[in-house]
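User: Hey, quick favor. My workstation is busy. Could you predict this chain's structure for me?
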Amino acid sequence: MKNLLKFSLLVIVSLTLTHCKSKSRGGNTSTLTGWEFNNPNYGNYIKGKSFEGSKPPSGMVAIEGGTFTMGRVQDDVMYDWNTTPNNMHIRSFFMDEAEVTNSEYLLFVQYTKDVFPPEDPKFKHIYTSVLPDTLVWRKGLGNTALLSENYLRHPAYADYPVVGVSWLQANQYCKWRTNAVNLKILMDKGVINNIWKMDSIAFKGKDVFDTEVYLEKPYALFDGDSTIYKKGLPVPRKKGQPRPTKGSFTGRHITSSDGILAQKFRLPTEAEWEYAAKANIENREYNNIRGRKKYTWAGKYTRAKSKRYKGDQLANFKQAKGNYSGIAGWSSDGSDIPIKVKSYPPNAFGLYDMSGNVAEWVADVYRPNIDTEANDLNYFRGNIFSKKVIGKDGKVVIVDENSIQYDTLPNGKVIPLYLPGTIKSTPVTKNDTYLRRNYTKGDNSNLGDGDLNSSRFFQSDSNNNPSMYNSPKAIKIERDSLGNIVTKYDSKFRSTLISDNTRVYKGASWSDREYWLDPAQRRYLPEYMSTNFIGFRCVTDRIGPMTYKKKTARNPSR
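Assistant: No problem, here it is.
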């Protein structure tokens, strides 16, 4: 009997160890082929570690996606059908808890000036292209010179939202932030040395870090100077393989399969912004929403009801004509211009100033209403699908100092189309979309809004059909002998100011009346214009499931 017990115990232990071993190998072994990932004896083919959810990036909060009614909740007093209600579903994402501030944007400005010195003729237009327009504070009949001279750079306004930035500049900031965050990740992981401590590298011009270049051709960075690399991610060595020399790159580079690098930062879509601003989760009762919110906070009024803050305004907006902040000694909202971010209570998602302070750019191309036949999952108008440009050598084309292309905007400002050290791209062509069902062209900004395919002449081969939205376009911008800008426009008849370069901005600002506090309201401006009441904040996509929270039972036992 004793021997039988010993034998049974041995069998149980053996089975347990075998199960544990197979379980430990299972995550690193192909269940369909038996090959082992990340093993030099099986080719070192990569499989990233189990991804259990990412934390919100610095300065951001997690927005759990879901369904909501996008559009107006009040009476359509303008009768313009500009905010027609539609049911939409939004995927989870991360969003800045407050608008980008002057100090944060100035970091981007200082970086740009450092790596693309404006005194160098090759880069003279790059630095000026990212500078906010401080003259937006000027008024013909107002004493606002102080703000023009101080609002952007004075430390008193460091934590105020940046204004005077166009939609184009906001997008440039998002691209830079992606590279800045990923560069720090690579330095923290020991893949790249601290570039600011390396005297052998000139961190200027095309010798800058770019995430897409790193993922495509790591050794194309810094003109092929491999001394920027440190150790890399550890890689198992084959048995008997000699140890590498000290200080050499002994590991491997990070790839998209590792799930380590940050996703791209970008402007929120209009649907994402409105979903995050409404924060209907505080009105949720099980699987239903009680009522529809008029503001970003619960309730019908703009003043706080709590005993401690009773009567205080819940946002920074214009009270009435000639009344921006209230009576001296008892201010209604605390500021007559934009105020320091996070000065008012956050909404249910933890986002500050989604109503009031400054309005915000979103990614969408403007159209008067939301098409009921449009995509109801992460709706967005403005997709331009592109592909990397491949050179004669079969490799991607990386822009250098001698191949920078510039564009002159209708207001005369010059901007670079591509920065040195980035991969050149181009919109996809008809050949690229041949026999595709999900999209048929590269630029989808005007999809289904009056173009040939949306008309009754959709089978016509004629290209002479006028577009529904076709605002005046500068066909020639030049300077005369005195350096003055001379702009010539095409002579086509127009009945609208809307074009494919007109962008949506959302939310009320310090200079707006209460009507615009409604998150559903929407306005527009050309993408190259800036004002003293529009700022922006960034978002980035959340990878994997909508939420990593543990779900409770649907029908818990009583």
